[in-house]
Amino acid sequence: MAIELKLRKVGNSLGVVLPKEALAHLKVDEGQSLYLTEAPDGAYRVTGGDPEFNRQMAVCEDVIKQYRNTLRELAK
């Protein structure tokens, strides 16, 4: 699905107004941050979550799975 967006002047900058459907899909609301990242193919992606945080959490989850028993013993 492609949605055409127009750039608009906002103060001394340019801005894009996202439709409600796009905001719902990104799971963001007013005041939250969006992240623009460059994809390997040269395209840009807009996400509602910080990609670096998501990467760090994935690494953390792998460590937790690997050391589940050790962490359980340490928690006692």
Layout of strands and helices, then pairs:
Layout: E1 7-10, E2 13-16, H1 20-26, E3 35-38, E4 44-47, H2 51-66, H3 68-74
Structure description:
It is a single chain. With 76 residues, the protein is an alpha+beta fold. The chain has a domain at 50-76. Helices cover 39% and strands 21% of the residues. The chain has three helices and four strands. It has helices at 20-26, 51-66, 68-74; strands at residues 7-10, 13-16, 35-38, 44-47. It has a two-stranded antiparallel sheet with strand order 1-2. The protein has a two-stranded antiparallel ribbon with strand order 3-4. The radius of gyration is 19 Å and the shape is elongated. The model has no long low-confidence stretch (mean pLDDT 89).
Give the overall shape, derived from the CA principal axes.
Answer: elongated
Helix-strand topology string: EEHEEHH
* Biggest β-sheet: strands ordered side by side in the sheet: 1-2
Largest sheet: 2 strands, antiparallel
Task: Give the helix proportion (percent range).
Answer: 25-40%
